[in-house]
Amino acid sequence: MFRGELREVPADLQPAEIVQVEDMRGHIVGAGYANPASSILVRLLTRGTALPSPDWAKAQLLRAIARRKERMGDVPDLRLVHSEADGLPGLVVERIAGYAIVSPDTLGAEELLLPWLLPEIEALAPNGVVLRALAPIRQREGLAPRLEMLRGRAPQAPVVAQEGDIRYEVDLFGGQKTGHYFDQRENRALCRSLAAGRRVLDVFSYTGGFAIAAALGGASEVMAVDSSEEALQTLERNAALNGAAVAVREENAFDLLRQLVRDKEQYDLIVLDPPPFARGKDHLDAALRAYKEINLRAMRLLAPGGYLLTASCSHAVSLADFLAVVDDAAQDAGVPLTRIAVRGPAPDHPVRVEVPESDYLHLLALQRD
Q1: So what CATH class is 54-161?
Q2: 3-class SS at 250?
Q3: Could you tell me the pLDDT band of residue 176, with boundaries at 50, 70 and 90?
Q4: 257-286 CB burial, b ≥16 within 10 A, e <16
Q5: How far apart are CA 293 and CA 329, in angstroms?
Q6: CA 52 → CA 34, 49, 141, 213, distances in Å?
Q7: CA angle 338, 344, 346 (to 5 degrees)
Q8: What residue ranges do the domains of the chain occupy?
Q9: Can 313 be counted among the known catalytic residues?
Q10: 60-85 pLDDT tens trace
Q11: Domain 3-47 is in which class?
């Protein structure tokens, strides 16, 4: 709850203090942890008169794990806790190669939720627990970045995440986010299912999730494009790890797409999975322009019968925004397209109806007529 939503705030409110919130009639709405230094003064944990506690937090964790097992089976490597979407605001927990990677992004998550849950998290991660707390939101919460081992011994080399029969090298102390983008798991499987015999272009490839899936799906040719030399080096190691043939190109994606259009290149399957173009509403207009440009260029590169898988992971870009900008790009490109799927994140990144921020990942699958 933002500070401006609260009529009265105690002058002696302490950081990470558990507080109850009342409505205008004096009825208790719920309880949560406070941070006087943040614009979000209280993050609710429970509704009604129930108070959060270590036992309550453990129950939330066990429920999150049970739901993933129900929806995904016994998956070894995945996101176990997805912040507000699992009722544990500010806390992200992933498991990779027997390690737990915990990211407390808020004061209450770091000082309350993580200490409450650490014994249970340790039990899920026999190799150790990595604290990876580097998100920009921590600065707004008055927290410094942290990157350290909480339990166990740090791996001496990158570990390997298993995603079905595909393996990906993951640097637990480097790279982006918590080391691997599990949220695109099922969308990579879609890419693989469409790739047989096709010439594939994977733009903003990072460490090769979509490119390797396409190669293993029987693509005739796969080109992966990213501006990061380090990411492409990891991609090449991932390709070798899986026996996948992927060519790489270190290039600015916008420049390359323009050049490929000028060269009249054509591809049978194109993947656009850029990093967030909009971190907040103040960047929304610029983000929509960027999404339109890359989609328009990709559509002009698409061979008849070819597929475009285009994604947005910008929290500020709603599904309606993304649909509109992709439709607008199709109109300007003059390319006949059929929308065959609208997809979100994998089940280990649940979307809660009452938490719109959890609905951040959108993927559209389009086919040229």
Answers
A1: alpha beta
A2: strand
A3: low
A4: beebbeeeebbbbbbbbbeebbeeeebbee
A5: 7
A6: 13, 10, 21, 42
A7: 130
A8: 3-47, 54-161, 181-368
A9: yes
A10: 999 999 999 999 999 999 999 999 99
A11: mainly beta
Q: Which CATH code for domain 181-368?
A: 3.40.50.150
Q: Which tokens sit at 241?
A: 């790890």
CB contact at 8 A, 2 and 21:
no
Residue type, 256: L
Phi, psi of 260 (to 5 degrees): -65, -35
By DSSP bridging, strand 42-47 and strand 28-34 are: antiparallel
Cβ atoms of 172 and 130 closer than 8 Å: yes
Selected catalytic residue, list 170, 191, 222, 313:
313
Contact (Cβ atoms closer than 8 angstroms) between residue 128 and residue 151: yes
Task: Give the residue from 42, 39, 43 showing the smallest Cα distance to 140.
Answer: 39
Max distance between CA atoms of the chain, in angstroms, equals 68
- Burial tier of 302 (Cβ tally within 10 Å: 0-12, 13-18, 19+): buried
Q: What is the C-alpha separation between 60 and 48, in angstroms, rounded?
A: 16
Are the CB atoms for 282 and 294 separated by under 8 Å? no
Spatial separation of the C-alpha atoms in residues 207 and 345, rounded to whole Å = 18
Measured N-to-C along each axis, helices 209-216 and 229-242 cross at an angle, to the nearest 10 degrees, of 30
Q: Which of 118-122, 149-153, 181-185, 275-279 has the lowest mean pLDDT?
A: 275-279
- Please indicate, yes or no, whether the overall pTM of this predicted structure exceeds 0.90: yes
